[in-house]
Design a protein that fits this description.
13 strands; Rossmann fold; globular; 6 helices; nine-stranded mixed sheet
Length: about 210
Amino acid sequence: MEKKIAIIDYGLGNIFSVQQSFLKVIKDSKFNATVLTTNKLEDIKNSTHIVLPGQGAFNTCMKGLLNIPGMIGELSKNVVENKKPFLGICVGMQLLADISYENGKHKGLGWIQGQIKRLPGNNLKLPHMGWNEVQIINNKNSLFGSEKLNDYYFVHSYYFDCEHKKNIIGITNYGINFTSFVFKENIYGVQFHPEKSSTQGLDLIKNFLTL
């Protein structure tokens, strides 16, 4: 069966880079799959996999989704109810939380319990930018690797303070140990950018497409 990957285009994500990475994985792995960047509800309905990139401020990204009539409802129906594989990237991961405290208090999608908080810094530069390790602490429900450390590319000043440890796949240290990889059933979120993370980033995308 052909896989249909819908990358949500709401004006606030590194859409082209994400799309190109998925296309490369599909070509190299010879998947029977298509990739579509879209803001149309019908495309979400017809998809098999859903990707939500994100860059910039949490509230701006949330408003971007809200500005597309019916988008959040359609996403909830397909991801939460119909259990389609979902991948949130960077702010796309943070939108999964209940609340963000970035420049005020803002409501998220609430699909994974937690809050978005500012990294303390501890004399470290913000944003946290560049390559850093992700340690896998829970791979029982994950196709994304083992307990070994892998380098991925980060650009962020806020992090997902996950309420339940059972929803944490991986952690990263930058002044504090913070959650950099979350999941709940069919829902996955990564704080880093797999599309900018060389071979290991492409491997992650490949594994996501096998779901």
